[in-house]
Design a protein that fits this description.
There is one protein chain. With about 240 residues, this protein is mostly helical. The chain has a single domain, classed as Ferritin. Helix content is about 85%, strand content about 0%. The longest helix is centred in the C-terminal third of the chain and has 32 residues. The N and C termini lie far apart (about 45 Å). Bound molecules: hexadecan-1-ol and fe (ii) ion (2 copies). The site of one fe (ii) ion (FE2) has 7 residues, from helix 2, helix 3 and helix 6.
Length: about 240
């Protein structure tokens, strides 16, 4: 009985430790942060360029898309400040490679005038990824980065919403292309999540929690676009098969 009680105590203590904030000044934290910080800086920079490209594909919404793009530039500067605040140098070559396959698919779709694929990649997949990561990060971030990220995540919902509304309005004509683009690009998000998960763990960001948050944002947006449960299930399965 005595042994059982002390074991319970140990478990509670371990849970307390893993729930606590990380040591932001430790070498291991700064090493993991150099890659994660670079990923968000690169992601925001590419998002800016992607919205500028989208403004060319949908000229009737050019002003709105450029305005959304400018928010991404602001986000990028905010995350640069988060790295500087922790005296971390972002590993930009790592981040460029991290995004390269998804980025190339966006550029290829843009060159082909494929608005549906561009919107799926930027507004649905990347923004859902950002929303899930930022929501999880806010819970374990240093106070400076927490404040910045709280402001950023609000904007990301607007970016997701733009793509959602366009795809909803055009669903009948784009559904087939949307499914096809999803099949090619959702697996890339899954492997990016796998690739970042060890570093995220050092920041006390749990991989399962990240995946759950991603699935919520992604599935909610597909529902909002007007897809039914079976279509959403089929699309989500592209991440695992
Ligand atoms: C577009 O608005 C944003 C594109 C960025 C996507 C980044 C996803 C980041 C995944 C890694 C975990 C980030 C935690 C946040 C740290 C500053
Ligand atoms: Fe952003
Ligand atoms: Fe965004």
């Amino acid at each position: 009985m005595q042994a059982l009680a002390s074991n319970n105590l140990t478990v509670e203590k371990e849970e307390l430790i893993s729930d606590a904030l990380p040591d932001f000044a430790s070498e291991s934290y700064k090493d993991a942060y150099s890659r994660i910080n670079a990923i968000v800086i690169e992601g925001e920079e590419e998002a800016y360029a992607n919205f500028c490209d989208l403004a060319k594909l949908i000229p009737e919404h050019a002003d709105e898309l450029v305005r959304l793009g400018k928010m991404e530039k602001k986000h990028m500067h905010g995350f640069c400040a988060c790295g500087r605040n922790l005296a971390v140098k972002p590993d930009m070559p790592f981040a460029k490679k991290f995004f390269s396959r998804l980025h190339n698919n966006f550029l290829e779709a843009f060159a082909a005038g494929d608005t549906t694929t561009c919107l799926l990649i930027q507004c649905i997949l990347i923004e859902s990824f950002a929303i899930s990561a930022y929501n999880v990060y806010i819970r374990v971030a240093d106070p400076f980065a927490k404040r910045i990220t709280e402001g950023v995540v609000q904007d990301e919902y607007l970016h997701l919403n733009y793509g959602q509304e366009w795809l909803k309005a055009n669903l009948d004509s784009v559904k087939k292309d949307l499914m096809k683009a999803n099949k090619l690009n959702l697996p890339l998000i899954k492997s990016m999540l796998d690739e970042v998960s060890n570093d995220a763990e050092v920041l006390h960001m749990d991989k399962e929690e990240l995946m759950e948050e991603f699935m919520i944002a992604y599935q909610d947006s597909l529902l909002e676009i007007g897809l039914d449960n079976r279509e959403i299930a089929r699309m989500a399965l592209a991440a695992v098969i």
